Amino acid sequence: MTALLRDAELAAAFDHGARAYDRLVALNPGYHAHLRRSARRLGLPDRGAGLRVLDLGCGTGASTAALVSVLPKARVVGVDASEGMLERARAKHRPPGVSFVRATAEDLTTAHDLPRAAAGPYDAVFAAYLFRNLTDPDTVLRAVHRLLVPGGRLAVHDYCLGGRRRDRAVWSAVCKGVVLPLGTLTGDRDLYRHLRRSVTAFDTAPVFAERLRRAGFDRVRVLPLPGWQTGITHTFLARRPPYEPGGER
Fold it and tell me: Measuring CA to CA, how many Å separate 28 from each of 33, 98, 202?
C-alpha cells in the first residue's frame, strides 16, 4: 500500500509538480466552475466589500481566482506550504486586493509561527483540497475557528466520498484510468498516487461534517457538486457561532 505524503515531503512533491498542475486540473470537467460554486456558497454579502478572506492551501491560485470572481471587493490572502505552487499563483494576473504568503496550515496553530501578513482575524476561510492532506486536521480546524471573527464562515471544498460503494468505485476508476497515467507522464506519479489514497483513507462526507462540529463550528452543511463528482466532491459549510459559552457579546 502506498504511503501518504505528509508535511515537508508533500510540500516538496507539490513544488515538483507545480509546473504541470494547472494543465492537469484543467482536464477535470467542471474543476474551476465547482470552485466558484463553493465560493458562492459562502454567501458573503455585497461581493465581499470590507471583508477579509483566507484562502488556505491556495496552491497555484485556482481557488483564489474563484474567490476573486465571486468576491471582487474582498481582500483575499492565499496561503500555501509549497513555494513552487505559490510562484505559479503569483505569476498570474491578480487584483491589488490579493496577496500570497508561504506558510503551512499547521503554522495557524501557533500564533508566533504565522507570518504577520497572514494573521487573522478573517471574515471567512476557504480551504480547497486541503484537510485530507494534513497530519492533524482537528488541530488545524480549531485554529481556523480561532482565526474567524464571531459569526465568520468556513467553506471546505474537497474530494470526500459520500459513503456509497459506488462513490469509491467511481473514484478508483478515475484514478486508474486518468489520474495515475497523467501523473506518470509528468513525472509526478508519487504525488498522484498520494492523491488517490488520501481520498480513500480520509473521512467520508458525514464523518468530516461531524469533525467540523467537534471543532466548535455550527450550521454545518454538506452540499454535493454536480456531474461525475457527485458523491465524490463536496462543499462543507460551517460557521463560528456569534456567541459562544463564556465569550463576550
Answer: 10, 26, 21
User: In this predicted model, what pLDDT tens digit does every residue of 76-88 receive, in sequence order?
Assistant: 999 999 999 999 9
Continuous H helices in 78-179:
83-91, 137-147, 165-174
DSSP assignment of 42-95 equals T--SGGGTT-EEEEET-TTTHHHHHHHHH-TTSEEEEEES-HHHHHHHHHS---
- Residue 77: which of 51, 42, 43 has the closest Cα? 51
Contact between 182 and 192 under an 8 Å Cβ cutoff? The reply is yes
Crossing angle of helices 7-25 and 189-200, in 10° steps, is 100
pTM > 0.90: yes or no: yes
* Rounded Cα distance, 212 and 175, in Å: 27
Non-local (6+) Cβ contacts of 229 within 8 A are 30, 34, 159
Amino acid letter, 102: R
Single-letter code of the amino acid located at 110:
T
**pLDDT tens digits for range 117-153:** 898 899 999 999 999 999 999 999 999 999 999 999 9
Q: How far apart are CA 146 and CA 69, in angstroms?
A: 27
End-to-end CA distance of the chain: 50
